[in-house]
Amino acid sequence: MNERINFDLNEALKYYLSDPASVPTPEADSQLLDCELDPDSLSLPLIEEILNPIVDAVAEDPSSLSRSSFFDSLQVLLKLTPVLPTKSLSKILDLVVSGLASLADITHNDLESDEPEALSEHKDLLELYAFLLQWSLSSVEAKVAEKPPTTGPGRRGTGKAGRSKSTKDESWDSSAQIQIGMEVMCKVLKLKLSKIFVTTSDRDTFVNLFTRSIYLILESEQRVKSMTIRMHAFKTSIVQSLTYFEHLSEPMAEFLHILAEQYDYPQLADEILREVGNKEFNPNDTKGPRSVSAFIVKLSELAPRLVIKQMTLLAKQLDSEAYTLRCAVIEVCGNLISDLSKQEERSENFQTQINSFFDVLEERFLDMNPYCRSRVIQVYMKICDLDQKFPKRRQTATKLAARSLEDKSSNVRRNAIKLLGKLVSTHPFSVMHGGQLSYKDWDARLQAVEEELNALKPPPETPGLAEMGIENTQVDSELLDDATQIPDDSPSKAPKMTEEEKAAAVQKAAEEAATSEMLARLQLTRKYYLEAIQFIEVLHSASETVLQLLSSRNKSEIIEAMDFFVILDAYKVETSRAGIRRMLRLIWMKGNSDEGKGVQNHLIDCYKGLFFDAPDAFSPNDTANYIARNMISLTFGATPAELTSLEQLLSTMVKAGHISELVIGKLWQVYGVQKKEISRTQRRGAIIVLGMLALADPEIAKASVIGLSQLLIIVGHIAIKQIVHLELCELDFKRRKAEQEKEKAANPAQEKKDDAAGDDELDLIGGTTEDDFTEAMAHIRERELLYGENSLLTHFGPLVTEICSNNTAYPDQNLQATATLCMAKLMCVSAEYCESNLPLLITIMERSDDPIIRSNAVIALGDMAVCFNHLIDENTDFLYRRLNDDDVSVKRTCLMTLTFLILAGQIKVKGQLGEMAKCLEDEDKKIADLARMFFTELSTKDNAVYNHFVDMFSLLSTEKSLEEESLRRIVKFLAGFVEKYRRSDKYGCQDKHAKQLADKLAARLTRCETEKQWNDVAYALSLLPHKNEEITKTVAAGFKVVKANG
């Protein structure tokens, strides 16, 4: 009978909710079990006999109710509620409520002392008591709902006794007991239930035992009329909802707001806030604190006056381990400041409350949790939007935000940047001089005010300062005493003042009052300026940190940093320019997803707002001028790295269509128009920007390419004309020199008479030798035309070299052609320039795809061979290679150039004539005719063909691409010139040359490795009139040997 019951709440609820009568009670008192079968047999003495021991046991130890006999007996009595006297039912309810209250105290103590081994037992007992409490309350409500019984368990007593008992039952008021029961429910709900109930389902099942009873009580119209019960029911329901149902947080706040505003009942809200303020949460419970946090924040928004009264209790949650609760209190402080700032009241208590809330917020800047630190920054951003500025607190907030820029949490840093931007955009220093925050301007204003103050202050030695209150106001008491003792013989009144003296005194008093007022006003102005400068100095310091955050790995942090510098630029803060330039690097930002692209797009948006969005009132022409000026200004003082990033940015913007044709036209105007009002720096910036834009859209620079090509043609032409002019000067000098010498020889006496009327220029010529003048002309040509400080051509030498050496950067074919031609002409001016650029010209001649460029290079090399033979002589092989060019025009040009150079003796022939001999069989008839003409002319030059015949034959015989018949025709043509030498020779020297040539060729027969080689040599010998029998025999013998071997 005394064994403890193994109570299963879910199992018990299953029976109870189905049918309370079906709940099994095997260990109940046997007499009660009999009464369960026959309810009319239940009597009051029997009930007392069973209940009293249970009451005594529970009073001594609440856990006694877990005895199976006690528990089952109570369940049987509750089953018999319809026939149970109200007195007994009241006693059962008292028993359960008092036992549950005692158990709640014991459980609370065990939770505080952290004794986990007792929690399991407490869990079972709490479930048992809560189950019985629900059943008891349900039974009470059912009993109250019944009509007064006509009969009852005590019907054995009839007459007066029976009526007396019935009257007593009917007068029973259970409201007080229900109220106590609800208070105990609240007490239990305050326990840290998450420590007792491990799973959420167990905890919810337990809580529902209470809420089910509350809802049942609220169904009774009579109960709801009781204010105490109604408030307890609401309080229990709201606390339970806040703790376990997060979605009800804001609706409950709205409910309490409506209750207080529309029904003038704030007491319930006060009770709930007190409960929340004193509530302690399990560190592992996240749902409860989050729900309560949302509730108090919402309530502080709707009814701040309700919350402010309980703020002392709510502030306890600042020590809570749940950061969500601390965040909530922080936000509540901000809401209360916002509400108080809108009140018309400005009492000392009012200001004290605001200061206390600000103190809490400033303290939370150092909260251990980054979410709390971020929340307090977000709260300050809301405060910045208020009409009341709180200047002193703003200064403190600015410093705290600047310090938070170095926080280890990127979220805190990001919010700190936003707060600084908000502080700038809502700063209170726009009253007197507009909203700009230039340190230079504010410092100048401060200096001006201090100068005015110094001018108004009297010098320290001025008498009467004590009376004015400016110097030390302490006066010796004896002097005061003496001043009050007036001798008897002294006049009782001072002499009367004249009208002039009165007017002067009044004027002096007015001037002193005006000066005093001016001093006070200037002091306030000086304080205003000092606060502004202090604010700007903090911004300057913070900007350096934000500048570093532009390199952060967190993309949102980077975006906030960009926005910050855009805001600073709008308010003319000097440090904004460094940040805006550093932002350019972000155009290279890459990301695995859209993050990198998001940063790039935001950068473009920032730069558009800063430099490309003109005021709305501007006309299209003014807008284009505005944008062009801003784009040019971006190049001023930019480093090479910044220019590279700017190039990428502008290219991206061109591709996106953000730059109009009108803006590009304005840039060309700035670059092309030479006016004093347009500086060289601006023109340089314009062409730099145009070059950047042309990378994305080459059409931008296409029109200018034509102009540049025309310019280079003019430059090259002028260079050649300069040479011609120098040569004409030299010829003129020599002519005049010769004439002077001739005159001297004809009239020696006349020279002595020409003292005063003599020709000074001729005297100068007479004192200068031809060599000196030629040397002077050579110096001008070499050092002045292309390298002189005052020479126009000086600037174009490096330019054409740059264009020619970077054909990928300047891909226009016409531009490359004109630049190459211009460079070639400049190379004809100076040997130094020629030597430095000769490898480049040869490379262009070898590799250019344009035959015109190759032809021009060939002609240029020919001209240089005339001007600077020592430089070209070593590179003639490159010139001969063009005889094998794929293009006919290049080949023809090269043949004509070489013909001129060789026949004029400008270059030495070193064996390359074989290349020209191959042209005799060229497919192009004009080339073949030119080659024949060349060799015909060459044959007249001192046996030139004879001297180079063997070399030419060697090259031709080894040329695999040359056909046999072509070879023989060439050799026969060349051998014909040897025959002509012989016929034209009177003395027989050419016979000797023919024999020598035959001997040289015959010597090659023994070295021939192939039949083709031997046949070629034999054919050449057959064309020479050598008349050498040995050679004939050798040829015949060799042929026979080859034929036999064949």
TrEMBL record:
Q: An example Gene Ontology cellular component term from the record? A: kinetochore
Protein's GO biological process: cell division; meiotic chromosome condensation; mitotic chromosome condensation
Per UniProt, subcellular location reads as:
Chromosome; Nucleus
Name all Condensin complex subunit 1 N-terminal domain ranges: 87-236
Gene3D superfamilies the record matches: Leucine-rich Repeat Variant (1.25.10.10)
The annotated region (Disordered) lies at 144-174, 740-760
Q: Does the keyword Nucleus apply?
A: yes
Name this protein carries in UniProt: Condensin complex subunit 1
UniProt source species = Arthroderma otae (strain ATCC MYA-4605 / CBS 113480)
